[in-house]
Amino acid sequence: MSKHIPISFEFFPPKTDVGAEKLKVVHQQLQLLQPEFFSITYGAGGSTRERTLAAIEEFNGKGAPVAPHLSCIGDDKARIAELLDLYKSQGINRIVALRGDLPSGQVGLGELPYAQDLVRFIREHAGDHFQIEVAAYPEMHPQADSFDQDIQRFIEKVQAGANAAITQFFFNPDAYFYFIDRLQKAGITIPVAPGIMPITNASNLIRFADGTGAEIPRWIRKQLAAYGDDSKSIQAFGHEVVLKLCERLIAGGAPSLHFYSMNHTEPTRQLVVDLGLA
Ligand code: FAD
């Protein structure tokens, strides 16, 4: 059994009433695992603003705290300040602060072009009220010119006031350990939670990885391809791979794990149970 560390779960705001009802059940089931918080994503440029707010309202005050994601690209300070004031009035004290990616066709970076500008703005507007989480990329952000520059940008987010970070998903634990090592050498010691993506479906996984710049190691791709449409084998293999990844991360000192639940109870629940973290 692994060392006991905190866990958190990520949801995206459902698009339909059916999805919203289903998510209530998922929330209840994952709640039983006693997460530290549930985070809820936010579409860049405010594209999911109403749906994110509805999900926050639904889950706030029901068990573990909620942490809204907030992105800044293509948005303006007044609208972001409105959201911060609303969250504060709802008793929310954790925000995941991101730049976001503009939906195709939308132009203009807005008043806060990078996550570090958003972090600075949140601190200016709300002082120390919010615990601010930011994104981290152990395999480098896809738009960064170099790893060194990306690390430097990350350090700037911390200097602007971020308290903690959650990583993009990855399957190579050495990338995470190297990233943490580089931060420690630069004197940055904030907790960085690995973002864990369960493997359930090969084509979805490849699509997410291509969209985010995350690497799927060749041996995983090959094995998934070999299983073809055999979803049972894919799920069993995926469970084993992700379980071993989590075990190595915990053994190597990861402070907590953040699961990209994809609005499903399984396989996240089973991973948490098998890790002894429930
Ligand atoms: P930044 O930290 O601003 O970095 C973006 C890029 O700009 C990097 O290449 C960085 O090196 C570079 N950079 C940073 N500062 C500067 C500067 N001053 N000058 C020049 N270059 C700079 N997206 C959403 O839309 N909604 C979500 O809810 C959401 N949730 C996420 C949760 C997690 C845990 C993660 C890892 C990602 C999430 N994303 C979300 C995706 C994220 O918005 C994208 O990865 C986006 O491309 C970068 O966001 P960031 O906050 O990391 O940006």
From TrEMBL:
It is an enzyme of class 1 (oxidoreductase). Its EC number is 1.5.1.54. It holds the Pfam family MTHFR. This is Methylenetetrahydrofolate reductase. Keywords: Amino-acid biosynthesis, FAD, Flavoprotein, Methionine biosynthesis, NAD, Oxidoreductase. Pathway: One-carbon metabolism; tetrahydrofolate interconversion; Amino-acid biosynthesis; L-methionine biosynthesis via de novo pathway. InterPro entries: FAD-linked_oxidoreductase-like, Mehydrof_redctse-like, MTHF_reductase_bac.
